[in-house]
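User: Sequence for diguanylate cyclase below. Tokens please.
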Amino acid sequence: MQRVIIVEDSKVVQQVLRHLAAQWLEIEVDFAWSLREAAGLIKHHKYALALVDLTLPDAPDGEVVKLMMKAAIPTVVLTSAIDEYKRLQMIEMGVIDYVLKDNRDSYLYAIKLLAQLLRNQGSKVLVADDSKTSRNMMRQMLEQLLYQVVEAADGEEALEMLCEDNSIKLLLTDFAMPKMDGFELAKAIRHRRGRDELAIIGISASGSQSLSAKFIKYGANDFLIKPFMPEEFHCRVMQTMEQLNMIGKIKDAANRDYLTNLYNRRYFYQQAQYKLKHDSKKQTLFLAMLDIDYFKQINDTYGHQAGDEVLVSLSSLLQQHFPETLTARLGGEEFAVVFEAEDNDDANELMDEFRFFISNRMFSFAEQPIAVSISIGIAAVNDAALEHVIQQADLALYDAKGQGRNQVVFFVEQVQCIDEI
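Assistant: Structure tokens for diguanylate cyclase:
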């Protein structure tokens, strides 16, 4: 489990930071009041990041920063004042960034910066520049932000890397490159990957005002003129990636069911259609339709809030049992799963194991036990259209309901029950 250490001697400021950290950081956070206390914590824990006050009662000259640097902990500094000497000193020491303690928004910025840095870990960034010196400089600054960095010496090489590796989330591209310049690179990759998948920052040593406008029009999110200050580079990169993260969250929320957090009907149809067309192992794919038995009785007996709790609990169990599958709530008490199995018998067995698990598990609401069972219809995914496969699974589910519920039916041309209680 990753941890963050925050060192701050002001009681008021530490209270603000504790509140914000609880909101934004989903990992363990340790707080220290002094250099001595921080040193003790470092001896017992390994920290992914540190946020430290530059001036402490027992460390008036930034000794706490040196402590973090010696322990190889990426560090963000809080300071009430900054001059050019201190700024250069912190850059030379290798701190990620410094934040002036002006107001509450400064502390929010600092905590959100830590959250973004934690997300950066493992994220891949491509630097495209024909100058090895420039690539090395940007690599160092990006690695300081905890990114994984790959390089390309020209536009064609960068385009090939981007087409082959969808895990690259940020492209920093120089304008003047051999074979393919930055404009053409941005234009070409935007035909393949949208702004919700890849962020682009254009870079140039030219001070031409038209360059930034052209880069934006060709698909870039931002633009930087060389030479740039480390702080400007860090801020532009972090803001661009924060925007990408926000777009991702909005897009994901639009694809999720509001209650269960499973994928919704619209997204399920889109992704299931894609899997049917592109999955090379589609002969091993199956579609299951699940329905909660007598769900209306649960609502009538225990109340709609209890019914919602059953839906949420069942959704969580579905995700736990089928973590690598496309799972969705289609509406009401009906769910769908697209999954892989070796053959028809294996598919039937997988679903019946889940049905058996649910029927032998006691759900609860407000300390009231609620018995739940499900009926399941399965159809094999062959060369049929998605609508046809869903219709087949739905017919099998209808048959399972008609034969007494709490059972699994596998669709065949003459629908019949393969496994029932």
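The mean pLDDT is 91.
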